[in-house]
């Protein structure tokens, strides 16, 4: 009898906390597609050199462990998940340490080094965007088996879908490899990418997604790697690349308006990191940073991935003083500021 009462009491407590969690969450899940800016470790489980599952990556993550995030700690989508009242991190779909009970609250299909263009994924042999979508379809089947059709459909339609893509299409593909430059002018290539983005969002919509955040490009000419290459201009930001980022973001803004008109019930927003990141770079001290032009890792000029060696004595001691962690990716502190910005602006309609 006493055992029965205890079991009943535990069940009531469990239900109470489930309801509490539900009431605090603004959306039931966050579902992520994209590149290294939002990859929490999918690339750990494929054959590619585009990895970061080793120190010093992750040294400021909980437990001081590398996860595959291209950061010293958490990344933007982790902070957005936390702001939504969900978990503090969004797990990688290919990580066997997690299963559908974890993914029901958030999952990332992102792959470092990928882009809208399939040819971009081919450069480093990573997961192309179409394959990320196939993984999502597989996820939907698992979710329905786990939650039942009714509850799963509710999660699918109410979840926040976040994408972050495009930087690699320009820096890793268009400006580095000859094929696309021989086929397209830079404006034509942007239009080509926007067309892929439209098809991708439309496919998501047809699969049940309704709340979608389309990620804009950062001021990619100000990444330490691009500044290092800009020797002739005193290692200042590569303004031509920043202009491309601004133009592409304008095209994405037009796409957002187009999709909201064309697809009944969809809510698409543009989460644009360009202005907040540029403001940090121009006025680092206003945000508590000391260094904007080079990264924390190694010399801070060109290193990322395996070039960020564990024992490099030049790697900074305090990443919070730096805007960039490696020559291509922001520090955890920078990502937190960007996430806070997009939560208060673009995502406020979903998370208020």
TrEMBL record:
This is GDSL esterase/lipase. Keywords: Signal. It holds the Pfam family Lipase_GDSL. It comes from Capsicum annuum. SUPFAM superfamilies: SGNH hydrolase (SSF52266). Residues 1-25 form the signal peptide. One of its GO terms (molecular function) is hydrolase activity, acting on ester bonds. InterPro entries: GDSL, GDSL_lipolytic_enzyme, SGNH_hydro_sf, SGNH_plant_lipase-like. Belongs to the 'GDSL' lipolytic enzyme family. The keyword Chaperone does not apply.
